[in-house]
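Record type: ASSEMBLY
Status: queued
Input:
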Amino acid sequence: MSSNLYPAFGVLLVDDEASFLRSFSLILETQGGINHLYQCQDSRDAMQVIVENPIGLVLLDLTMPHLSGEALLQQIVEEHPDIGVIIISGLNQLETAVNCIRLGAYDYFIKTTEENRLLDGIHRAIRMQEMRLENLEMRRRFLSDTLDRPEVFADIITRDKGMRSVFQYLETVSASSQPVLITGESGTGKEAIARAIHTLSGRRGPLVCVNVAGLDDNIFADTLFGHQRGAFTGADKARAGMIDQAGGGTLLLDEIGDLSLASQVKLLRLLQEGEYYPLGSDRPKRIHARVLVATHQDLDQKQRDGEFRKDLYYRLRTHQVELPPLRQRQGDIPLLLDHFLAEAAEDLGRSKPPVPKELVALLRNYAFPGNVRELRALCFDALGRHRGSVLSMDVFRQAVGQEGAILESEADPAMPLFAPDQPLPTLQEVADMLVAEAMERAQGNQSRASRLLGISQPALSKRLKKSQS
Ligand SMILES: Nc1ncnc2c1ncn2[C@@H]1O[C@H](COP(=O)(O)OP(=O)(O)OP(=O)(O)O)[C@@H](O)[C@H]1O
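Status: finished
Output:
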């Protein structure tokens, strides 16, 4: 993949004026941040350039010798309907403009149009093209249920369908330069996902992570944008900001839900204009890194409550992934348990002990407020304390007990435990049901079942005999 090029597809500029090709390419690169450019001065060569290169958007002049822009537009629309075309003409004629749009052009600008408006129109067309291509790609992946680069996700242990869809989606949007909003409860693996996005993008440059929670506006600006020498008292040396350090790589802004409103304005401007000013400098710098943001908060709710800017929210969620909490992917618990125990064993230079079967059952009923990170910590703690032959469940039982976070009938408060229109079962009936469930989970082993029920094994045996008599 061609990294550090924006957009991921090529933009072809067709104009018979060499000076316009030169000057406009420079504007596109320096002010528009568009650096995946092809030029064509003879319109008769344009179709060949399109065939030989990954062109996604054509910026087309109209008045050209040999083959007019309108004729070329027709040809492109017929033979390459997936390519977008914007007309940039010296002619200010409504009729011609209407005709070009009818033929299939995205937009029509005259060459004297203000540069910013022209660039906005081109950025809009690029975004439309990106979305169209992403859409096609997503359909292809979902239908074939494939991952092109499964190795990128090797460290993220899962067999959950929702997580697999997240991986497929990320492969689809990996080439885009737009931000990705990664949401999910604490410890669900947002940073791990950010690493995968960075690897998938093939960008040259590092992944730089900044936790923006608790940064006041000045520190936020200094951290991201850096400063010039003498920018403020104590700034005795110039310092590069994180944007600079990320270069053409990826910048992850973690805990974005905690960003102050003043800093939100700065971030929005950075994303809209692609430029920033180091503190104390009046010369703008361009951002080349792709921005990812992560939060465990509900940004949608925050923007509705007026705590997060709407415009920034919509900009950030151009691409969005929501990582499910661990309690909603219970199938992953045995895999993760195995993975983390093996990791802990290697870390501690021990061999991995056998795990009691009831452990998975215990954990499946736990809400895991700290998600995967919590399970990992429990595994390391349990192995650190391990003495006997089979892994003790004490550490896990303690966590489950302390948090009081056992799932209550799938934690749906709207769902009552007993149907209100039915008579309640008796205590004896409930006790019998519990005993039966424990025996099933313990696969008939009475001593395990008694531990699940919190009673002694002789007490369980007595109950079983009584209920069978
Ligand atoms: N599916 C997974 N497989 C293996 N390890 C995982 C998985 N998900 C998370 N982890 C590990 O769990 C820990 C927490 O993950 P991570 O830091 O990515 O979570 P997070 O969502 O960014 O948390 P926070 O919101 O607190 O920043 C890390 O050690 C990470 O490697």
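Annotation: Residues 10-136 form a domain with the Rossmann fold fold (CATH 3.40.50.2300).
Annotation: The two ends are 73 Å apart (CA to CA).
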